[in-house]
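In the previous chapter we treated chains in isolation. Here, by contrast, the input contains two separate entities that must be folded as one system, with a combined length of 1115 residues.
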Amino acid sequence: MAEKNPNQLDINGPNFNPNMYLDKIFKECTLRQIMDHENEIVKDTQTLHSDMQTLVYENYNKFISATDTIRKMKNDFKKMEDEMDLLASNMESITSFSDKINSNLQESRDKISHLSGVHNLLQRLQFLFKLPATLKGRMEEKNYIQATQDYLHAQRVLQQYGDLPAFQGIKSDCVSILEELKDELRKQFSNPSASTRELMESVDLLLQLEEPAKELCLEFLSSAEKRLSEQLVILKDQSEQRDIVEFVDLGCSGFLSDLCLIIASFNDMFISRINTDNIENSEIFENFAAVELENFVKDNMQKYFDLVQGKVDLEQDIADTNTLVQALDRFYMRIEGNKFSKDINFTVMATDIINNAGRKQCKAHLSILKQAFADTLTKVRQALTTPKLISQDDSSKNLTELLNSMIVTVVEKTKGVLQDLVAFVSPEICFAKKTQFKESFCIDNVREGLVVCFLHHLTASIQNICSDGVLDLKAPPTLILLLSKFCLDFRNASVHFLLSETDEVFHINHKRNGNALTNESEISNTMQETAQYLLNYYVRLQGYNCSQMLRKSVETRDWLHTIEPRTVRAVMKRVVEDISAIDATVALLYEDQGTATGNSSDSSRKTHSISVSRHQYRSNWSSYTPSHLDSTLVSNMHKLFSERIEVFSPVEFSKVSILTGIIKISLKTFIECVRLKTFSKYGLQQIQVDTHYLQLYLWRFVADENLVHFLLDEMLGSAVHRCLEPVLMEPSVVDIICERG
Amino acid sequence: MSNENSVIYGLEFQARALAPQLAETEKICFIIGTQSLKQTNNQIHLVEFNEEISTVKKSVFHHSEGEIWKITTSPLEASKLATCYNVISGGNTCSFKTAILKLPETEDPDNIENLEIVTKFDTTEYGSDIKTTEFHPNDPTRAASVIDNNVVLWDISDSEGKCIKSIQLEGKHNPKFTTGKWNPHQNCNQFTTATETHLKTYDVRTGDLAWHIDNIHHQLLRDIDFNMNKQYHIATCGDDGFVKIWDFRQTNKPVYSRNEHSHWVWCVRFNHFHDQLILSASSDARVLLSSAASVSSENNSDICAADDPKELETKQLFLYYRLSDGPLQWCEHEDSVYCAEWSPSEPWVFASLSYDGRLLISRVKRSLKYQIML
């Protein structure tokens, strides 16, 4: 409704409501406006009126002319009707005439058709009589197809009327010729040089001549077999000379296409064709043929696969992965592209071959990697044993360089191998898309078989350098230290890098294959263990080297008859020097954060305070005389109050810890040696000087200097116990001697 | 302490000599000698361990001759023992001596007796450093001393030991013997010695070198022990921290080698009854009981190699129960341990002596015991 309102007020609209309009005007406009509006409307009405008049006038004329035209048409139609009637009568007379003619000609037409029938029969008879001659002619021309067709043409007649004496001769002639023909065809069939097409042709003809299909099919297969085996022999001969791509191409174009052709023609000839003839028989035969074919294909493919496998195996030693993959891809595509058999899936076998190739390639790479690593080791060992490295300053650079280059070499080599192997799974390669292949290759072969195996080999071979039970003196200590660091660094960075690189490049999914994958942490742990083992070994080795020196020095001296100490024994200096050298070497690989500098900055204070405390100890010792106090009691009391110091704690991967370990072993040895001796007063004082000297120089290398002090105290204590006349030297004198030394 | 069922016996003095009373087969007895430079103070303690009530009964004797470095006991006479001791004479000189002593039959609880010297030895002509005097395993009239670079074979039937034969080691840098031991096999005609890193065994009838293994350890060879049940096996230990077992018919490689200690190993002992149990004492203040099951005489895994499934099953069971090589039990001391000995009468008891004079008598853990006996 709301919409209609404006329409009702539209003066030109179809729903115009004059009353409402007027109401609206009266309501909304002033009188003057209404008057103007009225004038306007009157004027409009007038124009509309005149317009209507002109329109009516014009249309009226048109109407009059239309009436005239209709009238004229009426007259014309009447004339046409008359003419049509005339036409109908004429047609009727024509029909009657034609009927008459037809009946007149009927008789002669019958005669003609009879005559032509006789002619045909005669012609056929003539063909029959001529058949032997024709066949012979065809035979001579070697036009076997035509001959067969001719024979088949006449065959039924001969069969039907062959018993009549007139035809007997012909039939026997034909049969003999036919035998000849069959012989000929068979000969062609079994001719080894015949092409597959020729073969097919003769089989086709023989079949048409109703030879037993079974026999034929077997014969066909055997001759096909012969030719395929020739192909195989050729392939075999070629396999050693040609490279693998050529070999595969040769196989594809020769053997496989032949096989395809044979299968196709076999199917055409024996399987699809028989269908049409005789349904019951054909089914049995078809099954038979299919089985035969299956076996045949299987055998031959097997042989071919064996050959390819052999070739691939041959290729491994010198394989260039790209060519190999290319060749394998072609091979695979060819196998996949053709469906050789209904039941047997040859792609699976092909995948197996490719898989094997992949595995072998991985193995070959693995052994190359191993070899390379062994070479690197040898090289590093040689580099370390050349004397310039040990003594000079530039050794510092070389050692870290050596380490880095070692890591880089190993990582790069492995990466190179991965890059090489990635060809196997590149997206263009057809077989790489198969999950079956991909999983086994990527996970079993590349990740587990190559990368993980190599990492395990790394640890194993490193560990072998200092295997249990055999202390190999030939392995220089620095090498062991270096290898330990190598393991550590490798664990920290490269293991993860290599594994994630592998996972990424070979798209290994951790969630899906989690179980089959060796955990990264497992490898890291073994690496860590190896590093720890080597480090322990290093500490022990260096410790024992120092020990040996100390032991000899104590054992060879007569401590009962020694003069008053004037200097520090040379051995002590030597030990300190050695330890400094070790420190320098270790520092190249393990840079401790700040501890060393922190120590040295306030070294003066520390030494001072320590010597004060030591002085107190000394005063203890010097104060008691054998008669006064039982020394054992004192030492036990002292032990009771001092915390038990773990002398042989595990070594950590830091310079301080390494040196602490070495120093601990050396000092412990010193203690043991001292305990085995008996000292005079001067002997004891010599030990006192030596321990003080060691204390002056060794504290800086260890993390907890109390440890050194504890061991040195213990040493001096032991010496006191082993002394016949335990009188210690004045500390100030000891200081002077040590400073002078 | 790592082992709850061990008993501690403390001495007032430092000590490094411990010996089981070999001829005593009823009681568990160990003999300790103290090492103190004050001559009058040195003692010999005979410690008897009562296993049932885990108590220790001691008898103390004076050893006034000097500080004791080594004690050995006679395997035939329970009361006889030999000591190597250091005598201080004058103010500033001391010299090593060795003698055979006799423990008294009856003990006087009020009075500490001085042990009677049965046989004295005059060793001056052989050298100054006496390492050990070893009783012959089955001839009560024989003993051998290891002095500097000599092995001296004594007739000890009299109060003065008579030298029967002396075997001298020669070589560069005046090599000395570290220790020596009779080979209990081969009719006890062989005496094995350790010198530096080498092992040398002499035939005492001829004085010739019978066999030897060179560079047996990386550093000084400290101690040796024969396996009572396997006649070609010998255990060695040394300053390189290794314990090794050798089959001395093939000397290129040890049949067993472990590196469990972190300092010198001073002593190694086969258990007399179950020779897969090996005791080693080290100056890292620990005694280790470890298993060498793979080379033990009780290792009959070869016998079990049968096809019969039933036997195979038992074999697997057997393998499951069988010990693998490696550490079994640690005993912690406060100071270096120089001696550890099995009791000759009780297969599951052993004693270890640390330098601070503490004797620890321990038992093999019960679980291990069952594992071995099964």
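DSSP finds 26 helices and no strands in chain A. The CA atoms of residues 492 and 524 of chain A lie 8 Å apart. Compare these points with the single-chain example from earlier in the chapter.
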